[in-house]
Amino acid sequence: MAAPGSAACGSANEWIHSGLASRHGFSLQDSFSSLSPSPGGPSALRVVCLAGFMGSGKSTVGPLLARQLGWRFEDLDARIEEHAGLSIQAIFERLGEPAFRQVENEQMDAAIGRALETRDPVVIALGGGTYAQPGRPERLRAAGILVIWLDSPVELLLARCATMSNRPLFRDEASFRALLAARLPFYAQADHRVDADTEPPRVVERVLALPPFERFTGIAPELSSRRVRS
């Protein structure tokens, strides 16, 4: 027996998928539904995912990090909006969170799958709840995807999000704190944690100081002699 609301969710997803097919000439069923380990093992670093709560700076730090590495950058929320033809807020309001999570999962697979298939390295800024879904940390780890948690104090996250209008799950301070507490056990499963309590260029420097990026210091000697510029 279908769960309550499952029919509506199915209709919503069919509507989104049909719109994607008509605009872009492909079906999400053709995207990478399963992720395979990167050829060459973990040392063949081609995908870096930035995880963290809303307001942690993923979409700001991501482009700066990608620029320093000479990689592409993808913002998962922006990718979802482009392909669905709706804002994240509108998807939540019209179609509900289950429909959003399904499309989010498919678009994440497509973005990572492209990087692994073409060997075109990419930094991906995940949505605030992307990594906090059951089984997601294990799935990305099994595929050899490096995940970095951008962590900030809750007071700073609140201050950053207070003036933003595109946060569908930000209702009030109490629910904000409760949602963060529920997601922390997922974020803690990331490969590395970086303090994101300062300006984005400094956060990028902290990321580049992590062990996985040691081999990249030779491709841009200026990184060690100057601060990262925004």
List keywords for this structure.
230 residues, alpha/beta, Rossmann fold, five-stranded parallel sheet, 9 helices, 5 strands, 10% strand
Question: Overview of this structure, please?
Answer:
There is one protein chain. It is globular and about 45 Å long. The protein contains nine helices and five strands; from the N terminus they run αβαβαααβαβααβα. A five-stranded parallel β-sheet has the order 2-3-1-4-5. The protein is an alpha/beta fold and 230 residues long. The longest helix has 22 residues, at 97-118. The chain has one domain (49-224): P-loop containing nucleotide triphosphate hydrolases (Rossmann fold).
**What average pLDDT do the residues reach?**
78
Q: Measure the end-to-end span.
A: 53 Å
**Cα-atom radius of gyration:** 18 Å
Total number of strands? 5
Query: How much strand?
Result: 5-15%
Shape: globular
What is the structural class?
alpha/beta
How do the strands of the widest beta sheet line up side by side?
A: 2-3-1-4-5
**Domain module tally:** 1
Work out the helix count. Answer: 9
Low-pLDDT segments: 1-36, 38-43, 218-230
Major sheet description: 5 strands, parallel
Per CATH, the class reads: Alpha Beta
Task: Summarize this entry quickly.
The protein is of the alpha/beta class and 230 residues long. The chain is built from nine helices and five strands, in the order αβαβαααβαβααβα. It has one domain (49-224): P-loop containing nucleotide triphosphate hydrolases (Rossmann fold, 3-Layer(aba) Sandwich).
